[in-house]
Amino acid sequence: MEHLNIAMVGATSQKTMRLLPRLGKKATQKVAIADHDGIVTCFVMKRGEAVLVLKTLPWQKISRLDLGGAAGTPQEKIFVCSGSRIRGFTKKGKQFLTFEVNLARDINAMHVLGANLFVCASYIYNHYCDCKDQDYYLSGDKINDITCLSSENLTRFVPVLACQDRVLRVLQRSELAYDIKVPGPPSVLELYNKDGGEEILYGTTDGQIGLVEIGESSAATKWEIDNDKKKGGILCIDTYDIIGDGVNDILVGRDDGTVEVYGFDNSSEPALRFEHVLSESVTSIQGGCVGKESYDEVLTATYTGWVTGLTTELQKGELGPGDEVRISKETQSKVEALRVELEQLQAQVLQGRQLYYQTFQPTIFIVPNFSINDTFTLCQDDASYSLTLEVQAGIDNLLLQSDVPIELLDVDKDFVVVSLSECDSEQPNGSFLLATCRCMAYTTRLKIKVRTIEGQYGTLQAYVTPRLQPRTCKVRQYQIKPLSLHQRTHSIDQERPMNRLSLVGQFSFAEIHSWVGLCLPEVPDKTPAGANITFYFHNTFLGTQLEATYCKGEGHFKSDNISTISILSDVLSKEATKRRINLNILHDINDDSVSQTLKIIHPKLEYQLLLAKKVQLIDALKELQVQEGNADFLIPEYRSILDDSTILLEEYKKHSAHLERLYGMITDLFIDKFQFKGRNVKTKVSSLLGILDNYDLNSLLDFFNEA
Amino acid sequence: MEMLSILHLPPLESLAAHLNPQLMTPSSRNPTLPLKADHFQSAMTERTNRAATLAVRALNMSSMLAAYQAELCEDMATNLDPVLWEEIQLINWLVNLDKSQTFAAKAGTRSIATMLVPIFTLKLNHKINPRMVTVGKFDGVHPCLTAATQAGKVFIHNPHARGQRPAAHRLSQSTQDSDISLLNINQAVTCLTAGTLGTNTTGDTLLVGSQTNLLAYDVHDNADIFYREVSDGANAIVLGKLGDIPNPLAIIGGNCALQGFDSEGNDHFWTVTGDNVRSLVLCDFTGDGKNELLVGSEDFDIRVFKEDELVSEITENETVTSLCHMNGSRFGYALANGTVGVYDRTARSWRIKSKNHAMSIHAFDLDADGVDELITGWSNGKIDARSDRTGEVIFKDNFSSSVAGVVEGDYRLDGQKQLICTSIEGEVRGYLPASKDLKGNLMDSSAEQDLIRELSHHKQNLLLELRNYEENAKGVSETNSGMGVIPANTQLQTALSVRPATEAQKAHVELSISTPNETIIRAVLIFAEGIFEGESHVVHPSAQNLSGCVRVPIVPPKDIPVDLHIKTFVGGKTSTQFHVFEINRQLPRFSMYDVAVDSSAAQPTGRVTFSINDRPQRVVMWLNQNFLLPEGVDSPEVTFNSLRGGGLLSISMASNGQITLRTDDIDLAGDLVQSLASFLAIEDLSADADFPSYFEELHTTLTEVDEFHSVHQKLTAAMADHSNYIRNMLVQAEDSRLMGDMMNMKKRYRELYDLNRDLINEYKIRSNNHNALLACLKSVNQAIQRAGRLRVGKPKNQVISACRDAIKSNNVNTLFRTMRAGTASS
């Protein structure tokens, strides 16, 4: 497939581009897209040019776009939501609906079905029929997306909410029917069959896709696709038969710019058929026929507002050399036209600039506003955080500042020059990381990996300066929580020996909830409904677990990792002291838990040690091989090291500093264990490191028991 | 011997079997050994052989083995013995590299009209050392890709003449791949090139440099042309004509020294430069029709030599790792920090910086527009071709591993030159220049799409900017405090001043930035090259210490003028959005010198005196421009304190135009002389100098050099003795093994092991001695360079060549006299 730029609009949100249904059998489809400037654009492609059908006036930022229409008629009415208002347009551009929903927050997800509007605003779900309030539900965590099932088999609508706490909530009127646990925080929902059916596709922010069948009282997961290749999170999904085998394929757009097409073999498991990488995050994806009749296309919209087509039509080659020239001429003339336009604009801008700096003397400068699309997420597999920043105008430079010790791992772009600056970490409130990233080439999206240490908490700040005149920069703050490497999970293994921490004191439910929120990631901002709540977490690096149960005046935490308990108790008591609340803290330390944790760490540590040893040998073995001519004389173990050397090296690179981190955590464990017993064992740390260097599980366990 | 090998092939039981007991098959000839002893023996041999392998590494054993092989061959002539044969086989197998395979070259079938694709791809199963790749026509006709590989070998890929050639001397045929021949250099190769050196050879000469030697080798005749010891090492090599010297020279750059050899191995050219040489290129820099030598070195300078006269100097901000000639006076360069760019004489046309490192650069006309492009091979395996004028990428491709070298040659023998790119894993790709009708458009349609995209983005940005101005013009409606709103009269004031050391802080240059009103400075980013660890320095005051004034201490490590690009984030105390002020300031060259108030401190003993024909006012101007003087000075009599702890610096000018610089730092004196001379446009300047303490030091160094030399010779003799022992012992041990005399064998191998350990220790001593020697030689070369820098133009070259002569004749007194007075006579 070839990729072709079609049009450009303002920055777009997730799921804001749709194709209107086709009219004739072979006719091309119209594209409807809404952007952050509040403009709804609808265009049709004619001879490679986008011809506008509809363009509304700028208004508030549009967060979703959906198509609707009376049941049985083509779904070609355009609905957009911005702020707390929903507007409807006909395909001719007539506005036939404005509807102000009565919700405290801005709408972030919407689904239209006939006369029914399903609207979500952070925690709230609302159902309107003919603009009349019908149902209402308050979810336990933020709602990311909504879809609604309606089919003959089902007696009523079944709305499904994708909630941040890794759960799909299936509703029945205003009540929760049941929930479906999914492996990651779901970000997008789409009907598998557009005409109905009970199957729903979901995509998660950590890049997984799955299909679930929704029943009356329970759901069944059909399949799931893991994110082995560590691609970005899913932002949009569509189904369309692009391959042409009669079965609908799944089109997926990710936040790292990857566009994927999954097809189905004879088995019902999906298989990756096609992949293309764009430079910006893909906010909407649609399959259809846009550019040329009878040529199917995958249409994508990116964050910066580019509409790009991946067409099945060959752009060159097969049609003979004459055609080739024509197309390149077309693009050439496009380029020319653009250049002329640019020159005119440049002149205009120069004038504006002069006005701004000289003649016109306002009392104040307004610093122009711009928006940043950013995420700060924990990657499960290497237990590091990845910060992605996306700016429509392109990033000129970025300043990273952190008041906690964190390690900057890498930046994925070639022409980004990263430079670490000296830090004043000794001073109070000093910085531990000061780094500049200067973009040499035009870059709209940056991904930076950082590694945190549990127990050390604070803020990471990113000052983003885009390529805009007058120069401005914007700060983004990211909290690094004390238990930064923990992730929410659905259940934990209750069999493990656990350490307990109990708090009793005069605090409200909301207070303890906010304290827990300070310590752990993925805790909803809103205080949960009900009198008490239980959250489960697991440590992505070590695999240890944590259970937090609390209510008004009481909090109970269970973990098999002593260090986790120690960090929690430190932070919680500090927070309580800040608010002058007297806390009664009780520790119940289970000595078995330490050896349990060490046993969990054991395979990781052993693997890392072996890897390090092997990698150390590679160079020497290679030289031997060259010197001797071949490697046949080596014992099989060494030969296998030589054969796998590239894999080993890659693995080693991927797990850089893994060993140091494990050592650090074992040391913490050691110190914490004895701290709870009231002993300071810092002097013994060096002998612990000595044991680690000649690692053996039993001797380590003995050391922990004896010391 | 060849006859024997064909007629009489005894079964081969390799040494490998002893290294690996599991592989051991019961030998048909030797069934008498009991099983237990067998195991024991295997274990023993494994251990001893490992030790022997170590010795191989330390000693470059392969040459020894070859000698041993020759001995065996002699024995073989008298005594036909399968055991001996086995021994020979073993040695052969050890010496030769093996298992190299050429995958069939994919002929360029795909049309080049749509896009540039490699016309051939080869996988040579040899690693290639970075930057050590060349193409030579060793028989005068067929180009051969030649590159240095691991373990001190050079391989020559010759796919054109697939004939058997005798394996002898240095050259040995790779056992499996007849296209590749291997050259044993027996030393780590540091640079190589090929080209016409002598007039009477048929083809190109291969030149291979190592840390201690330079070898000129005739591949075609399989003979050494010359083998010269070069004490300064050969980090870079270039072959060609220089200036008026009639014969082509092989010019090598070592530790601070440049040497040029002709086809007989006589050195016709010698000069010194500021630091270790990393890259060399010949190019007509001045446009006089003769080549000048461009030298890139580790002190970040590119120096231009017209024969041994230094005509120009360009200061960059990192080690100059590669240079290449583009056309005319234009040349490309690459730095160790990932910068690549093009200079036209001393003016930089463009440069770009990447987080990857440029491994190799080359000029090649890939788009057939008549102008060479700069082809860069990067450490991440990327190859790109950039327009000579603008630096715009016109073509790119990717290797799976780092690029080792980029060269050109007519590899398909069809009369067209190809661009040949090699990766360190031994992958080779050849690209033909584009055909004419492509009109310089090498990118496929997706690249065009990218261009449209970029232009559209540009347009979008301009529109956004326009909207910003319009909004500003409309006036203020949203006075949201979170939004950055700052008073219009906000102007930033910057000032540079010199701060002497206090107890809390080291001496530094202070850059203070302040706002005139209540706005605060959230952060200051300074981008500058060569004065910070990275390319930037950030000051980010903590939330409590926010104010409208920020003081940034700067400590420039060298006396170079630095452009500071300052970005200041200005806004309100609680703003999340800030206005970015971008200011450029220049730090003068000699900024780390503070005017001394009391001159009671001891005057420096070192001094340099010279006369100029210029008004004192001009010197005052120079002072004001190049020093950070708070009030400026009005007379050319001034004394400074060096903040780097170098003591006092005093400058005085007599009424007759005689200037005396007093300092103990000879480098500083040189810098001052050069700076002043270029400011006053003085072409020739001779000077009288004396730096007693420095000269004293140099004197000690010179004595040390002699000592190191004698130690070196002693050690070499000892090593030769030991090698003989090893040879004997190995033979004895193997004899005992074959005789089944385990006791003796064990004993021999134990001895061998001890001897080997001794050798390794000795090697360490030798290498330490060698390094110390190199360091001394470097400082001697630097001393000459420094003495030269006290003068300008002709007197400078006279000093350098006179010093060189003094060293050649080992006349220390003349050397010092020359350094002081500028001439050897008197």
UniProtKB/TrEMBL annotation, chain A:
Start and end residues of each BBS7 beta-propeller domain: 17-312
Upper lineage: Eukaryota, Metazoa, Chordata, Craniata, Vertebrata
Presence of the UniProt keyword Coiled coil in the record: yes
Keywords for this protein: Coiled coil
GO biological process terms on file: intracellular protein localization; non-motile cilium assembly
Protein name (record): Bardet-Biedl syndrome 7 protein homolog
Keyword Repeat in record: no
Domain BBS7 GAE, residue spans: 368-478
Coiled-coil stretches noted in the UniProt entry, renumbered to this chain: 328-355
Positions of the BBS7 helical hairpin domain: 591-704
Residue ranges of domain BBS7 platform in the record: 486-588
Transmembrane segments: none
InterPro entries with a match to the protein in the record: Bardet-Biedl_syndrome_7_prot, BBS7_GAE_dom, BBS7_hairpin, BBS7_pf_dom, Beta-prop_BBS7
GO cellular component, one term: membrane
TrEMBL record, chain B:
Domain (BBS2 C-terminal helix bundle): residue spans on this chain: 794-820
Major localization class: other
Residues covered by the BBS2 platform domain: 598-680
GO cellular component: BBSome; ciliary basal body; membrane; motile cilium; neuron projection
Ranges for domain Ciliary BBSome complex subunit 2 N-terminal: 134-240
UniProt entry keywords in alphabetical sequence: Cell projection, Cilium, Coiled coil, Cytoplasm, Cytoskeleton
Limits of the Ciliary BBSome complex subunit 2 middle region domain: 279-386
UniProt xrefs under SUPFAM superfamilies: WD40 repeat-like
One of the GO biological process terms: non-motile cilium assembly
Keyword Cytoplasm: yes
BBS2 hairpin domain ranges (all copies): 692-789
Compartments in which it is found: Cell projection, Cilium; Cytoplasm, Cytoskeleton
InterPro entries listed in its UniProt record: Bardet-Biedl_syndrome_2_prot (IPR016616), BBS2_CtH_dom (IPR055381), BBS2_GAE_dom (IPR029333), BBS2_hp_dom (IPR055380), BBS2_Mid (IPR029429), BBS2_N (IPR029430), BBS2_pf_dom (IPR055379), WD40/YVTN_repeat-like_dom_sf (IPR015943)
Record-annotated BBS2 GAE domain positions: 505-590
Taxonomy, superkingdom: Eukaryota
Coiled coil (residue ranges): 452-479
Protein name: BBSome complex member BBS2
UniProt source species: Scomber scombrus
